[in-house]
Structures
1.
Amino acid sequence: DQQVKQNSPSLSVQEGRISILNCDYTNSMFDYFLWYKKYPAEGPTFLISISSIKDKNEDGRFTVFLNKSAKHLSLHIVPSQPGDSAVYFCAASASSSSNYKLTFGKGTLLTVNP
Amino acid sequence: DTEVTQTPKHLVMGMTNKKSLKCEQHMGHRAMYWYKQKAKKPPELMFVYSYEKLSINESVPSRFSPECPNSSLLNLHLHALQPEDSALYLCASSPPRGPVTEAFFGQGTRLTVV
């Protein structure tokens, strides 16, 4: 049972436009969400996170939105740059759990075309 | 220092070999993790150490043996692996549970079992 779902395996956008990556979750206990960026043969790099007490968190070109009622979050990148081309993973954790476990989605490959 | 350092970066081993993967962080993080990632798949949690004690073993075969000698080091001892164990092995660490729970990942060890 996949508790974190990224239903779009890939996304292609033009440089300068907005990239929107989506993520859905099923576990109501999840209350902390993270986005990671990954280049081939490298470890994931933390991008941005959001706690369930917020509905928006912004860091430069990256904004994460959380809709708790829909169990949905999205990552907005604006403006998109060719260097943003990578696989983006959504991950979730439950602070009530003592085991620090992160559950990852399958990832979305973002390609930003010059 | 915001790095998680993994050695070696690449490892080729035979099915009868014994080898070890090493991971080090100096961020004062008290949770450390081993993940396994196959191509085009999300990272899969293997083990979690919390305050140097094993807190999660995700039903990993005994041919993988984790060790946490101190709060900065995490090892993964490998013995009698199978070709299907070939993957990118990622180490991560995170702060004690609180408002911020990002896991920082190392660059990974690309393991090939021949």
2.
Amino acid sequence: ILNVEQSPQSLHVQEGDSTNFTCSFPSSNFYALHWYRWETAKSPEALFVMTLNGDEKKKGRISATLNTKEGYSYLYIKGSQPEDSATYLCAFSGGSGYSTLTFGKGTMLLVSP
Amino acid sequence: ETGVTQSPTHLIKTRGQQVTLRCSSQSGHNTVSWYQQALGQGPQFIFQYYREEENGRGNFPPRFSGLQFPNYSSELNVNALELDDSALYLCASSLPGVSGNTIYFGEGSWLTVV
């Protein structure tokens, strides 16, 4: 059984704070690690797809790193804004097929003005 | 906008009934997957369709079944509904065969079983 763990479960920060979340996943049979941003009543928004050990990707104030050997990924948000409030999901793809995802439970971020 | 559309957005069914949920994939995407998200959990993989054939299945009973049509749209059917089937059902579409492909999700269909 594949296990994808995310921490923390939830996070409340002030506008301007920088924050980071962790995703841990199986280090064997790895294909890709996906990060999604999910706002209530919307579809999950794809942030990053990471495939190579040591990958670092950036999109505006959000960046992510990947360590496939030890099975973890970090998502960083620099200078959080209230519009960053959402649930951040990571999903592992491996073994069962490139496009079959095993999700963590997500990290719920609330950014207060 | 992800280009993946699902219908209906919300529905209420009675235990024992059957339900059909529908998904239109992003243009050109021939791989469609369905996920169930129960309260407090991450989305769980139900099954995947590629070119109208089931191409992988998660740990869900046979009363969960699906179809994919020649235009790559898809249906999820659930028979003999149980209270625990109450969840958000997400459809995802992608191109097959490359690990770095982005997988796009719809907004989901909320199913309540009473």
3.
Amino acid sequence: DVKVTQSSRYLVKRTGEKVFLECVQDMDHENMFWYRQDPGLGLRLIYFSYDVKMKEKGDIPEGYSVSREKKERFSLILESASTNQTSMYLCAGKGAAEAFFGQGTRLTVV
Amino acid sequence: RKEVEQDPGPFNVPEGATVAFNCTYSNSASQSFFWYRQDCRKEPKLLMSVYSSGNEDGRFTAQLNRASQYISLLIRDSKLSDSATYLCVVNDSGNTGKLIFGQGTTLQVKP
């Protein structure tokens, strides 16, 4: 059974904090993605990575950075959390065909 | 224009009905296509891939029309458990494997 695991289901952070969202996959997939999902806006791509130490900006990278030091782990970093980053964050791993998602992290910034 | 467009709905149908969703995409070089299903407060999960020849999985049929750049999903004999949001997904034409999601179409099947 393939698995993508996100470190937290729910997080509450204060404005200005540095936030780390961790994602681990056991599928040996090259491609990994971070999306955020907001009502009425669907899934929007923040960053993706197609290899270790490689990263590409998605559609909404501002305020975020990523790290991919190992193939199985893709971290999303909010350098200084703001209230408009309150959202559901979804990580995905993808091989040649479909993507598999983690269970999501619901982040609230207060 | 959005890269992948769907009618957000909601579609409210009675049990047993047949319902169809369409999705259009803007990049004619897109290579592969999928339908995902997302239940409330859950992550998206693959429902089916979409092939040029069309494909069927039980009550679900997916079609691809490359000339018109749209994808469709047909659900026959709707069940209450089909209530969910259906996401149209297009694989970018590049080599990165980037997936582009539509906004999703919400289906509510009622008794």
4.
Amino acid sequence: NAGVTQTPKFQVLKTGQSMTLQCAQDMNHNSMYWYRQDPGMGLRLIYYSASEGTTDKGEVPNGYNVSRLNKREFSLRLESAAPSQTSVYFCASSKGSEGLDEQFFGPGTRLTVL
Amino acid sequence: LAKTTQPISMDSYEGQEVNITCSHNNIATNDYITWYQQFPSQGPRFIIQGYKTKVTNEVASLFIPADRKSSTLSLPRVSLSDTAVYYCLVGSKAAGNKLTFGGGTRVLVKP
């Protein structure tokens, strides 16, 4: 099993450009999450999806949109990138639909917005 | 969500036991305590979870006193590969999926 995979691994954008970060899991998990981690900081939840077809806002949703395409895939879109969105983005998944379940994280996407 | 306080950093030596204490004074009755480990350039990894008293697995032990206002993660006989950031999280099923990762404790294991 590959676990949680993310693409791309690195990305450089100019201010105002858009892009979609892709995430997929092969563990048949119900819940999926998107976090961002700024240098030297902890993770902050952007959006999460407790089940296929549902999404909810986390702590820092502004400037982002998400799509739970199917049970395996959860994408994060930046419509108009800003320098403040420079960060490392982590996708995660968990078996259940509750936050206490063990979360499995992907390797992250390093995004720089110039 | 309960606020947690952890030391910013700790140094240790190979073979020693490392104890990281997390304060969570406003923990609620239904809250559980969960610890994650994060290596540089990787996503966090679940270590252990508990509600009260003591929980042990093959990696660590978690000690929770009766008042549950703090908890201690114990890593026995650390090695250089245990150098990482350790996060203490407190949350309940009622809080849904909104886990909050604080700043964590940066543990440096020296030879």
